[in-house]
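2.7 Reproducibility. Because tokenized structures are sensitive to small changes in the input, we list the exact sequence used for Microbial-type PARG catalytic domain-containing protein, including any N-terminal residues retained from the expression construct. No trimming or masking was applied before prediction.
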Amino acid sequence: RRRIRLRAIAQKTLDIVPTIFEHIPPAIETRTTTHHLKDLAPLNPANCPGFTIRSLGPHHGRKGTRIRVLDKDAFDAAITLQPNTTVSSILSASPRPQPGEDTQMTDCSSTPTQPTKPVALLNLANAHQPGGGWLNGALAQEEALCYRSSLGLSLLKTLYPIPPLSALYTPHVVIIRDALPAHTLLFPNTPALDLPVTSVITAAAIFRPWLRNPDRDTYAREEDVEITMYKIRLILRVAVLQGHTKIVLGALGCGAFGNPAAEVAKLFLEVLQEEEFQGGWWEEVVFAVMDNKSGENGGKDGDGNYGVFYRALHGHVV
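Resulting structure tokens (single pass, no recycling of outputs):
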């Protein structure tokens, strides 16, 4: 029954998104582009904006940000980070200085940026099928994003398959629904120009890698560790090079793709702590990880993906 309902929601999304975009100027760019790791040089520290931690505490004034892990839908996490980023706010925003300009380097470490750039969030993608199984009523993180937004219409078949060390980038994705379980359509009660907007980085994890027995909580092949770290570097570089200072990441491949959650969380932290990503590239780094366990097995201390990522990452300064 749920699959039938979600298929209907997918079809309604396909039908209504073009209608919504009739009310949105073409300056809201939805065209998706491909970015290959081999083409992206390591980040240049001279371009780092140097954000510092503003909250009081032992790390106050230190360059970087404190990771937060939230039991939230990725779109909801992005809206929480920057609640007033809408179609109209992007259209009316003044241009932000580009990385490396003196105007950005002067006092940007102590002053929050204006919401002229949407939050960038990670789409945990299927490398071969645009939107995963969203047209067939499947429900994982990628499908949830497509049901709620214009993303599915920006992921064209010509962009697939996504090469192992490549990612897709969609500059503007318009959110048209509330999250599950309601999935309430926002438009037309919310005018098109007032709909929330994010940017999306689409990247695929390794599909069902070999894991070590008996606990199956680590990769069996060192090659898979290295590939996962390369994927994380790619995601972070794309976010920075596209000008994003607030990012929402996730449990890359830790669902149906069978990647080991504890090791993936550890690898995210290792990469974020690499010298390339130090110095305050981001105001906010959030992991949106929906808890896949309930009751005594759920929560921050549970053995679900949320608990695993929370204990590995929450509160670390990067």
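The mean pLDDT is 92.
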